[in-house]
């Protein structure tokens, strides 16, 4: 008799990740992916997060989720979360506070801010970090009446935005994308893995599957560069020079798309040549102000050349040659100026090779490959469309060459012109918004320049006449006083940095400390870790935050700071307003701000509270958190201050909270923060009256809204009648006129003329040479300022028709005082500073190294894992080196923002992030070596993080990196082993 087999154990082969699932939007980077958050009952703490996965229905990530997004559990349950409002009781920087209630905190803030608004609203400087809610914060600043508002883009990506918006009406970054479906050749310029990562990974997978070629241009080969078919290890700050060499080769070989240029750009517009005259470099126009072009002679050769409006149809315009206008002035087409400049031998591959670190033959080959992909492998989509002039086209011609760029080219003092150089390269290939090329994402393209100018005048109710940030069209739009001095505390929109469309967050603390151009009363910041990883010149910044005047008063009298976590900046606040996590509040990912559109449709999204903040703590014995979403707090403060638009006629608050504002606020009639489900019953999109159930509709539809573009409107958006009419109906454009792409910028030329002594508004004498040099209407390249000023030039001069502004500091003949470039790279598993407190992400990396090529180590007598001194013109740090073959030999690099100050983020004081981790920020000056301007681009004011030049030397073995600062007493988390999820398993076994 057989013994019966033991019964099989009951195994759940498909366990549920939780007992409830909700959809929302991730906040672990700027990607803004859709996520599904699985919740499960956690006993006394109520619902807790069990699992986070990608939402396959979401248009951004289509279900893909990275390590950061998955680790959102540990971000939400971080021990570094703040729990109560805090009021400073000790010296600023000591981290000594007492907890207070919200009523007291809001009353203190109101008591500080109300006299400022009554006296002079500009005494409030309101600067926000990585908040993704600028549609609210900018409007709040406008209603308060202060010109002193900025967002983090000034030290992040304004070169990218401005370079594109003043050229294409759109830009790289998050507002455009390669045509992943049709591109055959992709160039990635300075792209790290932190922004837009999941869509890029999806797109790169499509390219690899099709066999398209991917070329990565970056001093460091990581992430995307590691899977590229070719890595171009370029020297930092020379990307523009490389682009010009490619342009040189394309022009020389006549491999350009002239038909595209004449149809969609200002290549044929006539530019007046009148050296020294007030109209020199401006477009020739007719009596009605329309730009003119010169016509080619008739085929018979009879008759004189004529002129016509440049937007006329069925004409054959001239693109080269000098022409005499009817009034006797001389003029040449824009393309003539392009050929004249970039065919110069100084831009040849042989001339730029040594400076860029790229073999001349490689440059020539890349140029050939671009031309072959664009012209020999052009594609034709069988899609009929009508252009803006009414001409019908049976197909869409595509140039399957695409480019994408990010901070690596933008964060230099020559970044604005480098971004424009890349766009010029694309335009010459006919590769903007055609099948296979770079594509606009709605609501782009915008008119060039975008119509919203920065606010500068206060109305009778105290509010500014426009939002504080905007786009300057001419000198009269600057925010300067009668003597030409800055009106803003950060000096944005001044003669020193005229096109600073995002403001200049990196200059506000020094200027507020110095009272330049005036003293402020209160500095209010949100999610801006300006005392640590967001500071250029970290040590001095800490000093400015704590410095006192002769009377013993702080030179920056009051600091209000809002954050969700105990970052380094908390210690320097006088009043701390604790924010929620991203899973405890409403947010609007708005088309008015930073939409999540793709090239085939418009989209926006929300976040909504999945969890009650009062119940959410990591340990069951922790007390409830008393925190509020900063957006709601801001509206509460606005109502207490009686700001226009935030109170009803009886003085009561107009909005209950941020959710109420999202639904009911209208920027213009029918236009609100969210475009989906508008109208009384949610029957409208983009424009329509508020819908009281709008947020519920979003929640029911996965947290997002998307409107598909008609197929005939998806390409040539700048001149596609179908797209332009659609965009006007949606409220993205004020009119449906075509947008002419600007190879040559008349806006820049207007500033150059002012610097040459023309016009009613001219720069002060000290700025004239600077403006005249850098406001070139065609893209140019110059040595980044730190490289030009902080070291002696090599014996072989860099090719440059426009000499670097400023002088060189002393040094030996032919000697490089700081021969190495030093840059940071963003890892896929981290984003801004908050990632390095995340318990799961910390397991990937808890410290950083300074990476250098083995050949570089041999050159300086340094071995792998030696301790080294790294010095810039500002100072010295001591760190540990690590050999890496994935870096250009004249460059050293490290991961960004992993280094922490001891005691911050409630990490253990011996945490590797603090003892061995480090920041390059200690070496990065906030001003140029000469000391006369911010360490920034002279056109936009963007922080030049990646201009850093250093020397290295072997150091004695050490236990800690240097410098070290006194630990911050912000609390320490429980160091017991983390077994998140064990409680769920125990409950399941019961």
TrEMBL record:
Span list, region Disordered: 1-20
Pfam families the UniProt entry points to? Molybdop_Fe4S4, Molybdopterin, Molydop_binding
Where in the cell? Cell envelope
Q: Matching SMART domains, A to Z? A: Molybdop_Fe4S4
Q: Which UniProt keywords apply?
A: 4Fe-4S, Iron, Iron-sulfur, Metal-binding, Oxidoreductase
Residues forming coiled coils: none
List the cofactors: [4Fe-4S] cluster
- Domain 4Fe-4S Mo/W bis-MGD-type stretches: 19-80
Q: Which CDD domains match?
A: MopB_CT_2
Q: Which family does it belong to?
A: Belongs to the prokaryotic molybdopterin-containing oxidoreductase family.
What is the name attached to this protein's record? Molybdopterin oxidoreductase family protein
**Which organism is this protein's natural source?**
Lysobacter cavernae
